[in-house]
Design brief:
- The chain is globular, with a radius of gyration of 13 Å.
- About 0% of the residues lie in helices and about 55% in strands.
- Strand 5 and strand 6 form a beta hairpin.
- The strands form two sheets. Strands 2, 4, 5, 6, 9, 10 and 11 form a seven-stranded mixed beta sheet that branches. The chain has a four-stranded antiparallel beta sheet with strand order 1-3-8-7, with no helix packed on it.
- The chain is mainly β and about 110 residues long.
- The termini are far apart.
- The chain contains no helices and eleven strands.
Length: about 110
């Protein structure tokens, strides 16, 4: 079974950038899509982005389209989420998931 570990979160000012990483171990991402979700306090977990491991096609939530970019490094068995022009409403814990397996999440806080 694959294990997922997210990293790269932190505190950033509005308009800033962060790059999240999701590293897989135990098994590769294989041919599956890898998805990013986020959950803010008091809110349900919501879809952010998806990237196809084969072909690298991407899908984004409307709220992040044009600001976030998902990518993957096959050699490192890692997917990334580049987040630019961050807004306070992007504050949440971000998770990657594949085939029902979730990482522990990484906190992103956007505040001045």
């Amino acid at each position: 079974q694959v294990q997922l570990v997210e990293s790269g979160g932190g505190l950033v000012q509005p308009g800033g950038s962060l790059r999240l990483s999701c590293a897989a171990s135990g098994r590769t991402f294989s041919t599956h899509n890898v998805n990013w979700y986020r959950q803010a306090p008091g809110r349900e977990r919501g879809f952010v982005a998806s990237i196809a491991w084969i072909g690298s096609g991407t899908v984004y939530a409307d709220s992040v389209k044009g600001r976030f970019t998902a990518s993957r490094d096959i050699a490192k068995n890692t997917v990334y989420l580049q987040m630019n022009s961050l807004k306070p409403e992007d504050t949440a814990k971000y998770y990657c998931t594949v085939q029902g397996t979730w990482g522990q999440g990484t906190q992103v806080t956007v505040s001045s």
